[in-house]
């Protein structure tokens, strides 16, 4: 019986990434809102609401998801605010899950922007799980226009935990060591650069 193999796949700053992909689809020459301090949330006109998603450069300036827009503006006066478009996000999520189902025998949507993929027994089809995670990440970016984090393990909890330790297009998977009868895991592979 093959060893269980679980991918946890999460879209990077989903609402902002999906908004950026849509803006670039409409106008390929438009600035990529992921490349400067920007957030999705509330109304730019009334400056009312909270931060629903933030760009890496906004995060580097201390902007936090869930904080009031007024507070985010104090941290970053040049912050660009984009109103949410939920119908776009629902469609992007549908496309994301559909792509995962092309490869994973079982896909369990955990939220609108993340899923657990049971990849058990697929190594004979796709080869090394980390190499395939690279290919899957690239395909998601090429076809859908956004990036993901991927955690790889033998169970959901560890796959999600490992994914949470990496951000901005990275991969992680456990390398098991037995010590005093207990298993420990550590990050043994990653690619991409985190924000400053």
Q: Taking all residues together, what is the mean pLDDT?
A: 83
Structural class: alpha+beta
N-to-C CA distance: 43 Å
**Nearest-angstrom radius of gyration?**
18 Å
Q: Helix and strand succession?
A: EHEEHHEHEEHHEHEEE
Q: Give the overall silhouette.
A: elongated
Question: How many strand units?
Answer: 10
Number of DSSP helical runs: 7
Biggest sheet: strand arrangement: 5-6-1-7-8
Binned strand content: 15-25%
Low-confidence stretches: 166-172, 175-196
Most strands sheet: 5 strands, mixed
| Helix content estimate | 25-40%
List keywords for this structure.
196 residues, alpha+beta, 5-stranded mixed beta sheet, 3-stranded mixed beta sheet, elongated
Care to describe what's here?
By secondary structure, the protein is of the alpha+beta class. It contains 7 helices and 10 strands. It has helices at 14-26, 56-60, 69-75, 86-103, 123-126, 129-144, 156-164; strands at 6-11, 38-40, 53-54, 80-82, 106-111, 114-118, 148-153, 171-172, 177-179, 182-184. The protein has a 5-stranded mixed β-sheet with strand order 5-6-1-7-8. Helix 1 packs across helix 4. The chain is elongated, with a radius of gyration of 18 Å.
Give a quick summary of the entry.
α1 crosses α4 (86-103).
List the SSEs and their pairings:
Blueprint: E1 6-11, H1 14-26, E2 38-40, E3 53-54, H2 56-60, H3 69-75, E4 80-82, H4 86-103, E5 106-111, E6 114-118, H5 123-126, H6 129-144, E7 148-153, H7 156-164, E8 171-172, E9 177-179, E10 182-184
Parallel strand pairs: 2-4, 7-8
Antiparallel strand pairs: 1-6, 1-7, 2-3, 5-6, 9-10
């Amino acid at each position: 019986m093959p060893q269980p193999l679980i991918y946890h796949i999460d879209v990077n700053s989903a609402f902002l990434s999906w908004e950026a992909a849509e803006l670039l689809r409409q106008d390929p020459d438009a600035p990529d809102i992921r490349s400067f301090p920007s957030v999705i949330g509330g109304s730019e006109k009334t400056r009312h609401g909270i931060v629903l998603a933030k760009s890496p450069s906004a995060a580097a300036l201390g902007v936090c998801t869930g904080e009031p827009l007024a507070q985010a503006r104090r941290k970053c006066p040049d912050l660009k605010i984009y109103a949410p478009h939920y119908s776009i996000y629902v469609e992007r999520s549908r496309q994301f899950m559909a792509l995962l189902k092309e490869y994973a025998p079982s896909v369990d949507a955990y939220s609108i922007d993340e899923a657990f993929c049971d990849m058990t027994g697929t190594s004979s089809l796709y080869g090394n799980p980390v190499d395939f995670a690279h290919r899957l990440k690239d395909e998601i970016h090429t076809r859908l226009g956004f990036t993901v984090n991927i955690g790889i393990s033998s169970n959901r909890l560890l796959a999600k935990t490992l994914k949470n330790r990496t951000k901005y297009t990275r991969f992680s998977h456990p390398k098991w060591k037995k010590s005093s009868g207990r298993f420990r895991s550590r990050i043994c592979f990653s690619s991409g650069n985190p924000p400053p």
